[in-house]
Design brief:
The longest helix has 21 residues. It contains 10 helices and 6 strands. The N and C termini lie far apart (about 40 Å). Helix content is about 35%, strand content about 5%. The chain is globular. The protein is mainly α and about 350 residues long.
């Protein structure tokens, strides 16, 4: 991501295909008292903007596992400049726990000359105000595997040992071809790069469409981490990626199985109740000025279909939480405003 003199981020490199910088801070918070960053309730704060699909994953998993009381949540607003995400939704524009205006300050507290992008999600050590990690796939895996002593009763097993090998294979496909594939389309710097990215994306979507014609969820009858990772791209597909990123062979609603599956998850506690469609659209259409120079945010699409009957429970059986239970009500202060949800489109 480049930057001009007024701190406007640039995402498209003319003539080039998009390549994501995946060099993250890979420290881990471990269930080990001798670790540099040991599991400790109340010590860490998850910074996760609702607009960002990578951050949305962490919000979902934290809620599914019931970790709200042990890992606090700070939520930057949907827009930012090249320097950092900001806490412009909080009173005074300051995170109430960390006392900072920009996430950048937590990165600089640990690495004064941090040279890379300031990304969400990030986990911050509250006592020092320093960032611990922004390695988003590892963060959610560690929520499942390192914080087991603090998970709610009835929490789902998102990393089932018997499915792990196959799940890792599916998640690699989802990440490289779908999660990152939409960005490869949207930030392509040439017609050739765009068309190659477009073909890769829809080849993968067709593959997953076929898989979801045989089972309710990606790994069978219950949800896993793989479903979390796919959902955050699917829920953004028609509102953003179809138009803004030119992923327009067909909308999500034109896929029988993917659309039913996405609705199934959206209506499952822990998934749809973390999704803020207004912030999602504001982020992409306002921040990506080199893709959308006018910064006009579309009013559509009609979102009411997200609440329509998906029929996958009767078609396949199974249950999202298996022998477990759904999470309870959203924690006070973390609710998505009704006007920003699919319910706002229901007459």
């Amino acid at each position: 991501m480049a930057e001009d003199t007024d701190h406007t981020p640039s995402y498209v490199a003319t003539g080039q295909e998009f390549k994501r910088d995946t060099n993250y801070i890979d420290d881990r918070i471990l269930n080990d008292a001798d670790a540099q960053w040991p599991v400790e309730p109340g010590r860490y704060r998850l910074i996760a903007a609702r607009a960002c699909p990578w951050a949305n994953r962490t919000i979902i998993v934290r809620r599914l596992l019931g970790l709200e009381d042990v890992i606090s949540l700070g939520m930057p607003g949907p827009t930012h400049d090249a320097r950092s995400w900001t806490f412009d939704l909080d009173p005074g524009g300051v995170d109430p726990v960390l006392g900072i205006e920009r996430l950048q300050q937590a990165f600089f507290a640990r690495f004064p000359d941090y040279p890379r992008g300031i990304t969400v999600p990030a986990v911050v050590d509250v006592p020092t105000g320093a960032v611990v990690t922004n390695d988003f796939p590892q963060i959610t895996e560690d929520f499942s595997t390192q914080w087991t002593a603090y998970q709610r009763e009835g929490a789902p097993n998102l990393w089932p040992a018997e499915s792990r090998q196959e799940m890792e294979k599916v998640m690699r496909l989802i990440y490289t071809e779908i999660n990152n594939g939409v960005y490869r389309c949207g930030f392509a710097g040439s017609q050739e790069a765009y068309e190659a990215a477009f073909d890769r994306l829809f080849t993968a979507l067709d593959t997953i469409e076929d898989r979801l014609g045989r089972s309710r969820f990606l790994m069978g009858e219950t949800i896993t981490e793989a479903d979390v990772r796919l959902f955050t791209t699917l829920v953004r597909f028609d509102p953003v990626y179809f138009g803004h990123f030119k992923c327009n062979r067909q909308p999500l609603t034109a896929f029988e199985n993917l659309w039913g599956y996405a609705r199934d998850l959206y209506q499952t506690p822990g998934f749809g109740d973390t999704v803020d469609f207004a912030q999602i659209k504001q982020h992409y259409y306002i921040v990506h000025r080199d893709v959308n120079p006018t910064q006009i945010v579309p009013k559509g699409p009609d979102l009411s279909g997200w609440l329509s009957d998906h029929g996958r429970d009767t078609r396949f059986g199974g249950s999202p939480f298996g022998d477990g239970t759904a999470p309870g009500p959203v924690r006070p202060g973390e609710e998505v405003p009704t006007a920003h949800t699919a319910a706002a489109w229901v007459q």
